[in-house]
Amino acid sequence: MIVALGDISAKIPRLDEVRRVMRDTQQRVREQRGCVSYAFAEALDDPGHFFVMQEWQDLAALDGHYRSQAFADYQDAIAPLLVRDTDLRVSETAQSVRPVADGGEDLRPSD
Predict the structure, then answer these.
(1) Which of 34, 48, 65, 91 could cross-link 10 (Cys pair, CB 3.0–4.6 Å)?
(2) Edge to edge, what strands does the sheet with 87-92 contain?
(3) What is the Rg, in whole angstroms, of the alpha carbon atoms belonging to the chain?
(4) Local structure of 101: helix, strand or coil
(5) Taking the alpha carbons of 71, 111, 2, 33 in that order, is the dihedral positive or negative?
(6) Are 9 and 17 in contact (CB under 8 A)?
(7) What does pTM read for this prediction?
(8) β partners of residue 82
(9) How many other CB atoms are found less than 10 A from the CB of residue 26?
């Protein structure tokens, strides 16, 4: 599983445009081959600060996303709305666990 997390800093006066671009992109990317999840979120106490959270089946799926028209369209639309480049970190995970109510760990794979 590939997990990508990014910090996005948008221009405050353009937040409505930023949200529209992000909603459109979410919808398009979620339909791509190998996309497990793809979502943008907004920080509650930091106007203009957004996050992107992505899960991909494998590196080939993520590479396909980067070559897609949806990614190119997003880059073209979002670039003039940001105050700096997005800081994206990509990790490969072998397994993840979910905590259980008693504080222990449920060691069954989550996917």
Answers:
(1) 48
(2) 35-42, 49-56, 2-9, 87-92
(3) 16
(4) coil
(5) negative
(6) no
(7) 0.83
(8) 10
(9) 16
Task: Give tens-digit pLDDT for 66-77.
Answer: 999 999 999 999
Task: Enter the tokens of residue 52.
Answer: 């992107």
Closest CA to 34 of 14, 11, 4, 64: 64
Location of structure tokens 């991909």: 56
Q: Which residues pair with 62 in a beta bridge?
A: none
List pLDDT tens digits, range 31-56.
Answer: 999 999 999 999 999 999 999 999 99
Q: In this structure, is the dihedral angle defined by the CA atoms of residues 23, 67, 60 and 9, taken in order, positive or negative?
A: negative
Structure-token match 């369209």, residue found: 73
Token pair of 78 as six digits: 């979002």
- For 35, phi then psi, to 5°, come to -80, 120
Residues 108, 105: Cα–Cα separation, whole Å:
9
**Residues ≥6 apart with Cβ < 8 Å to 15:** 47, 48
Helices 69-78 and 59-66, axial angle in degrees (round to 10): 60
Q: Which residues contact 32 (CB under 8 A, 6 or more apart)?
A: 61, 64, 65, 68, 70
